[in-house]
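Lab notebook: predicted structure, single chain.

Context: the supervisor wants predicted structures on file for every construct in the current expression panel, including those that have not yet been purified. This is the next one on the list. No modifications to the sequence; it matches the entry in the shared construct table.
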Amino acid sequence: MSNNSKESLRFPAAFKALSNPHRLALFYRLMNCCEPGTKCNAASAARFCVGDLGEGLNIAPSTLSHHLKELNRAGLVEMERRGKNVECWVEPEKLKSLSSFFQND
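Prediction complete. Output recorded below exactly as produced.
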């Protein structure tokens, strides 16, 4: 792991966000919802990911939104508003970066 300040701040924020069980479950499901690097638009996310997330986690839609925003603030989930819809996805580089943290080089 690099010692520069950007690197040293990035991992703690990501792990703090993932320390919440709901956020960890959300991240895992988003990570597996779509092909890495592709966007889950509102329609497909609701059908294939987000709709299932709320049921499986027994949390309100507003709480689900809060957790997605926290994952976004931590740099784990990308979000883009398109009119009334919000697209969200996990960039493959984020997964590689997290993976590299656990590898001993």
